[in-house]
Amino acid sequence: MTDATNPLLQPSTLPYGLPDYRAIKPEHYLPAFQAGFEEHLREIARITMVRSMPTFENTFEALERSGELLDRVAHAFYTVSSADATPEIQAIDEQLAPLMAAHQDAITLDGPLYWRVRQVYEQRDALALDPEQRYLVERHHREMTHAGAALDDAAKEQLTALNQKLSTLTNTFERNLLNDTNDLAVVFDSASELDGLSQGELSAAARSAADRGLDGKFLITLPLFTGHPALAQTRVRESRRRIMAASLARGSRDNTHDNRPVLLEIVRLRAERASLLGYDSHAASVTADETAGTPDAVEQMLRRLAAPAARNALAERAALQAIVDETEPTPFPVEAHDWAFYTERVRTARYDIDSSALRPWFEAERVLQDGVFFAATRLYGVTFSEREDLVAYHPGARVFEVRDPDGSPVGLYVLDLYTRDSKRGGAWMNAIVSQSRLRGTAPVVVNNLNVPLPGEGEPTLLTLDEVTTLFHEFGHALHGLFATVTYPHFAGTNVFRDFVEFPSQVNEMWILWPEVLDNYARHHETGAPLDPAVIERLRATETFDQGHATSEYLAAAWLDQAWHRLSVEGAGLDDVTGFEAAALTDIGLHDPAVPTRYSSTYFAHVFSGGYSAAYYSYIWSEVLDADTVDWFHENGGLTRENGDRFRERLLGVGGSKDPLEAYRDFRGRDAEIEPLLKRRGLDS
Ligand SMILES: [Zn+2]
After folding, report:
1. CA 55 and chain centroid, separation
2. pLDDT tens track for 308-332
3. Least enclosed by CB within 10 Å: which of 38, 481, 545, 608?
4. Is 466 assigned a catalytic role?
5. Which CATH class name applies to 3-108+110-150?
6. pTM above 0.70, yes or no
């Protein structure tokens, strides 16, 4: 293959630099990565070989310009490897993982480069830098130091070896999980076993089964988290038990997809790496460069919330047990697989709301156009038009062009809604192209969800949870789309992990906002709006089941901390289940009826994603979120004025200034925790 035939080696000529996925074949990726590595190293060598003294321009600006080819290839590839990891792509990913880690280390641990960075850093007060430039100097210095640039050569060698092993192991973890999740999808022989599911869900399950050659059967595929939406509706207890058992078993069976030894080794190597970098634990090393600062600050927050959350979950369980005792001919103690089902019964009895009966009002296209896009137009004036002429990486991924009120282009938004076997679980946003003034790039961002494909010719009716996920992920998308930074280092969602969930959580506030809800929640056949009484009751249920939801989240957040607070001496363990039980008992959240949102063996956020020792981030940023929701309420809600302020002071700055400073700039003061406690019913 010659360079001229590899479409990744030239900038794309498609609008906004969208990669030309129709021309890109799997065999193009590795050679393009190779070329990207080499070019990047040449660019770095040019920086370090400059004879004159280091300046902002010849060091930092040059650094920010470097690696453009590699960025382009990596963004194009990792978009595909998450959302459409065919066996061919998986194999490339595996080969690539250690190469990528080695390349990153080669740059971060480059001695002459670090020397130049430090020279400029030490003179920063004397240089005429604008605030973004100054923050760039501080961040690069901090990040390189944090990653080991100040270590001696022997230690750097050890560090590089650890990073490469870790990148291979995290890759193995993700591949095992994807394969085990597919293997453990639950097959039912008859529709009667799934009594309670809607016709649409049954035909989706029949279609999934047929796709695997199981004609006439029904296949329930598993989401990433422990629970399953179908548990709320399935009347047959044994079927619920089978679904829950399959979900909990992922990655922990004695087979080739066993993630237990993989995660133990990850934990051990991370502790070793942290020690090499001068920290007591991986958690200490991670939080040192987050807004939280220390694992103790995280622990304090989690413990403060755990006791009231567990108490509320206990009260919720009593209500579920009462219904079981009243309505079941042979009552039984409520177990994990019963929780969602009887919670729905309590919800119906107490608030007269049946969540699954709401689905006809949540047709996906209406939710997107008349809900998600509509709210963004009201707040920010931006408009969305589908570009059917543009093809992304999969036929299921749709491309929308985003424009400002004056018609000027903002970027592209790609939506990939449906689940497939080649897509990893969960929902996420990532950039395909990052915004940067220096490089002259506009953002292209993608949202991925895992909504089951409806039966042939049937509409996609979302659950309220799926509606929430779409609004949430779109909040991340806006963060990426609205970036107005100069340096690519700071684009959009390139902020601290314990800050990044804040804008996405804020965007969830528009789901039940009267003007928005009335616009999108229309019956898909009749066009009738939701009954105002139902809406009233929906709002009343916002703190409902929060004991359970908060407990399962906190349990996972604490598990993540517990694993990653281990020192090198403490990390040589062999019993995953025993460790989990001890950690959860320690924080008062060990309750088999309320399993953790992710067990360790399928906790992708922390063992293969970017959230190790940082899963606490969701509740950490929810403090800012709840405080911001209050601000919108105080200031008239869904208005352009409010939207513009949020966009300008928070979303647009991306990571280009201290996030808590940006928050103060927007809010007029620091965040307060009370709104969060109130929202989750933890204040009494
Ligand atoms: Zn998120």
Report:
1. 37
2. 999 999 999 999 999 999 999 999 9
3. 38
4. no
5. mainly alpha
6. yes
